[in-house]
Amino acid sequence: MDLEPPPPSEGAWLATLEERARRAVRPAVWAYVQAGAGEGVTSAEASDGWRALRFRTRVLRGVGEADLRTTLLGTEVSSPVAIAPTAMQRAVHPRGERAMAEGAGAADALHVVSSNAGTRFDELGASGPWWLQAYLPPRRDLFRPVVEAAVAAGARAVALTVDTPYPGTKRGVDDEDWSSVDLSWWRTNYPAEDDGGWKYDTLDDIGWLREAAGVPVVVKGVLRGDDALRCLDAGADALYVSNHGGRQLDRAVGTASALSEVVAAVGNRAEVYVDGGIRSGADALAALALGARGVFVGRPALWALGAAGAAGVERLLKELRAELQECLDLAGCPTPADAVDLL
User: Which residues are catalytic?
Assistant: First the structure.
């Protein structure tokens, strides 16, 4: 059963969310959620990259209250703030992806479901718009039924994650600590013969996935302008700037730094999204100012899930939306698109 979130308190709930989640989630799972790669340099710098940016606000525009509604690959949502894909949701909360989907749906927000999910796609229901995140196994034929099941269940796009030829070593994570954690649900949407192996992706995977899915393909994990253009030329429909939450190559550039290069390279050819260290409405405004169409949150969504289930996810999204609303109003921006060039 989902826990009820605490009574509203201006700004206090978001500020204490991480600690609330730490107390609610088992220590081994918490260590995994929080872990970064290597020395943790990239993961530690993520939020600071957004906080370092400063706005040049607009005045005397007669804006009134900004309208946050926008579209992500043609799907209308309540705001540009969406939920990034994360695994281990059923280890964080018993209802896992179902609670995440319900919370996102209640906030009229997009969420992305991991292909390693512990919940069958057809159990997610029609609570709101969602995409499938994809890791391609060495045998592509084993992934075809996975993506077909996701699309049949309502996935509107596939986010191909390309920064993970295999999982990087996570700092402070000990496999022995997981001995008491039931993982029988892991990768429940894959066929039984899948061995969970990994492979090095190529540009050909974009076209193959687009054909297999029959829905748009978003390439996630892009940090360079030249790579963004190669992906578009290979058939990608959108780009997603991400360094995997600092969990793959440590000392990878922060997404706050990489975003502008990717946006400049792409121009008006495709939408660009970003995640990594987004913790507030001001962070989201900075991402929009750099040209992002969608702003995704990862760890905070897991914190909200662990602390208060679906109600926590809904509250997280609504509070971030309220913060972004105020930021846009004060910056003189009638819509998220008008935030471009605030920096």
Answer: 244
